[in-house]
Amino acid sequence: MDSSGKASTAQLVVLATSSALTALFYSIYRSRATTVARLKEAKKVSIDHELKNILSETPGRCVPYAVIEGVVRSVKETLTSQFVDNCKGVIERLTLKEEKMVWNRTTHLWNSTEKVIHQRTNTVPFSLGSHDDDIAVAVRVIRPLDAAELDLETTYENFHPTVQSLSNVIGHFISGERPKGIQETEEMLRLGDSVTGVGELVLDNNLIKIQPPKQGFQYFLTRLDYDALLRKQDNSVRLWRILTVIFGVAACSTLIFILWKRYAHHRQSKRERSMLEEFKEQQKKRMRELNLEESSVSPTSCTVCLSRERSCVFLECGHVCACGSCYDALPEPKKCPICRATIDRVVPLYNS
Ligand SMILES: [Zn+2]
Ligand SMILES: [Zn+2]
Q1: What is the pLDDT of residues 151-166, one digit of tens each?
Q2: Which of 217, 235, 246, 308 is the most buried (most CB within 10 A)?
Q3: Which domain covers residue 309, as residue numbers?
Q4: Which residues sit with Cβ closer than 5 angstroms to ligand 2, an ion?
């Protein structure tokens, strides 16, 4: 804050950043809260013999947002794990990640970083069936890769370290990058896994399908059960709410601080103006007492005695308003007759 009462650039930057972050976090919080509210209102549907009848009687043969819990069943073919025997599934994701150490020039430390260099996801059509094997009803899952929270099970992991030779090591110190190796992962959604699906449930030509819901609703496919999914989403809402509150408080306090400084400055300059007016008023009264005309007083004459020339500077305020004798006659503690600031030092003026 400078003496003009205006906010400094740093304060404006803090105010702008904290306001922008508050707005951003609030919008994320709002959308997460809406997701949770819709998730709570979603219709719970169980996979049983009645399902087809219920859907055919529903308008549009569709439940716009439904929750189903079932086990993964293959429709025709299945995918087999490339690494584990007798491991069959319907989604298989292979990932190759390069891990390396990168030299940070600021902290002077080697930081570990990783980068996905290859990823491939295979899927085959699958459906969710009842936990009860006797019930043949199944719900076909459409576009499973569009779902949020699609957590696959890691079926295989292997790390292939990079072979290090002496010349390599020297090269790495020069380049600032040291490869550690390649992490190979296989993840799968296996047959028989329990899955919760939340989406649009439709009866389409005798086939029951769950598919991505309309705009604004989120498609979930997760190995968590419905309650755990709800808890997880609730926790994320809480996190964004806390962040919104923290940054909102920071933005408000900065704004209050800036406004308060402006107000204090305004009050101070108003007080100075009124003191100056008061002083001029007193001076006029004194001139009348001494029977002096305003025009007969030199503009450089001492403002106290109105006769001798002004001959000293008061510090720190810097006013040149009095002669030496009047300064000496000021009562202790000496204060500037114009602005009432305490006089720390007085410097004589020499006119030549
Ligand atoms: Zn004087
Ligand atoms: Zn002064």
Answers
A1: 899 999 999 988 877 7
A2: 217
A3: 298-352
A4: 317, 319, 336, 338-339
